[in-house]
Structures
1.
Amino acid sequence: MADTVELLKAKIQEREDHLRESWVKAMEARLVQEELVKCHRYEGVNHLENCRWLVDKYIQMLQENRVKGYKKIEV
């Protein structure tokens, strides 16, 4: 009985850690988006050339840094 309680607590803690890391990555993508908006406003007409590296980084982060949750709880 005590082993199953410890295993359940460990599994829940692992899920919370995973969700926390997932949210941190999502917030990093939001920061890159804000920098991209600033770059577009600052560069004006030349934003396609000068902000391209931010666009590439943002697209990569959108593909990789999705918030992944759990659909069911295993008890």
Note: The mean pLDDT is 86.
2.
Amino acid sequence: MPKVARLDPAETVFFLCDMQTRFKPAIYGFNEIVLTVNKMLKVAKLLNIPVVVTEQNSKGLGPTTPEIDLDSLGDLRILTVDKALFSMMVPDVKTHLQARPHIRSVVLFGIESHVCVLQTALDLLDEGYDVHVLADGVSSCNREEVPIALSRMQQAGTYITTSESAAFQLQRGAGTPQFKEFSKIIKDEKNNTTQAIQKLVRSSL
């Protein structure tokens, strides 16, 4: 029987992969990925989910784009790592995960889908984590790469989902103290969600 792999906020970490300034003109739907990322950061803050951020060769490719509100996370941004490896699973990231043995699931978003996102997903699967990749939160320079990358990740055991679906899985139900604020996030982000879905998910089908 296939593994169910439900998302639980107490056992989940978000991985934000290489959303850097120099990539902005090259990546298909970059602005829409930013919309998805900022929505998920709001969810992280509400549900107290830690976030790991990587930057690929930041000296040459710049920092994470300032349109992404990383500062709002405070202590929830547990790590920002400059890397040369394509995968996010560099030694510093592995060390932080090992220090949190309760973490079972990783929600992964960023760029590029067929390179750093794919290799991160495969490395996480090798380490035994449940990996959930947001179809409206990943892309590549060539949009034709995206559906192939998503298919490859799914073949390996990754769960392909959307930002709103993942958010509702993490929220789980309406009978919690934070549901009112969660509902407000979903309503406030409705147009952004539609924009990202239409740009990124339709292109990957």
Note: The helical segments are 30-47, 58-61, 91-98, 113-126, 145-156, 163-171, 179-188, 190-201.
3.
Amino acid sequence: MTPQMFPLLLLLLAGPPAARPAPPTCYSRMLGLSREITGDFQSLQATEPLGSCVRYLPRLYLDIHNYCVLAKLRDFVASPHCWKVARVDALKDKVRKLYTILNSFCRRDLVFLSDDCNALEYPIPATTVFPDRQG
């Protein structure tokens, strides 16, 4: 093999250029946005002083598989607390977006597995491991 052929061989072994990843599905968009909202809400609670209006907001521990999430999102957006607080307004915008996605665009892509409204009052444990269905 000649030294001029070595770069050509590397190009052939590398294969075709990687394609762009597929766009997010409705489900992945809902799941990602719900996690982002929950994280932003927890961050907001952690950084705001105890006497602030944030403590009066409805809790936002979202599980998009719980039917009560729709009412929870509506309650949060309609909450009269924290008007004109920039971080809360930004969070309410994300909540409105998720509600619209859940209720309109991706309505058929979601299956509600629960209707336990109390479950949305507390954080979902991060250590939850779902059983392997293939094994």
Note: The helical segments are 5-14, 26-47, 69-78, 86-105.
4.
Amino acid sequence: MAQSKPLLMPWLKANIHSGRYPGVQWTNAEQTEFCIPWKHALRQDSSDADVLIFKAWAEVSGNGRAQGDPSVWKRNFRSALRAKGFKMVSDQKNDPANPHKIYRWPEEPASGAKSSSGSQEQDDCNTFNNFIAQESKVVPFFEDEDLYNPQDIQMPECPASQDILQECLQGLNIGPEAEGTTGFQPPTEQRRLQNHVVIGAHPLPGQQQHPVMFELAAREAGLPEQPAGPAGGAGYGDGQHAEQFLQTVNQTRDGAHFKTEFRVSVYYRGTKVSEQLIPNEAGVRLVYRPDLNGTALDHESGLSLVSLPTPEGILDRTQVTLTQRILDNLGNGLDVGMSEGVIYGQRRGEVKAYWSLTKFDNSRRPQEISKMNPEPLYQAKDFIRGILDFINGMGSPPFALFFCLGEKWPDPENKPWEKKLIMVEVVLTSLELLKNMAVEFGASSLQSVDLQMSLEEMMELY
């Protein structure tokens, strides 16, 4: 008869106590936190001893042969810890002298002993861990979690009575939980606005009833494509750069109405998989409709439907499964619209969405987009204020918004955007044009009293 698989928690505790594996030890007197050596296989000082604990768990659990790939052993071990509720409290895997991670032991359940389903629960979680081991094999050169890390998603412990993969995917922030934004409170003026707005079919104050669809090229619709003057300022006298910049600003607006196109780029774990230019001033709705070729106009909302691509072609099968799970639950998707120079966002599907003005946001404060009301995200007057700051010697303003679907962003653990399963960049092309012009011309060439006064007047319109 086949030998039964051991439960992870008693097996791990016994091996920490035994001191059998170098570096595997308790780090506090209460024995609630422990250290695991975590050395990358490509380091010159790596050896077989660095993976002994991972190999041992692979042997006793059956999730990897003794002669298998050490990267799979390590990945399975990490996934098993995550599934049982262990929390990583310190990640020092890049420490040159002592690469390691420290984990906290999960708290004991209040009810005491587990039910008789405990052994089945472990087998089910092992099944999921084995799924990760078998399905996430990619280019063997990359050994550690830097290529694919299941910890990027929050995988709760797996109850045996429910579908295992579904439960382990709950951390993707898919589901009809209580709504509301977390981590971000817009300014008072924006909070006042968001109680009165609806994107699309019901026009916002100053919004046209029907969206403007550009039939011809941008320049034929009145939007300049690039600075008309030569690069580097050749041929310009004093004030001419400022005058040209102001002319371009005026071409991007019609009174309080702001004119722009949207360029939508989709990234799956840092790799760009699609890019589309959307000539609709009203905005876009991000959906998942594999049968949609290009874009289509949603006549009810006035937004352009932009479908995210299927994850076909990705070698990592676990990444494919998790990405597809998010896509299948997008439903009515995510709206990104504009009115009176204010960019709004609203979630309409079951997948939670988060946003930032930069993909390098290290604030660690996730900014969730509301499902209850359209939420102001960025304003043209903030951009204009940023241009004025740039002229006065400060940094240039942002011209794009970044959205993360199904995972918190900015990441609470400051993980880079390339780790996220689905990121979407929405560029406002008019703002991009103006920002690039300002940088190309240089701050000193834009120091004009007329330009500054005109920009300040524009800020009062929005």
Note: DSSP finds eleven helices and 17 strands in the chain.
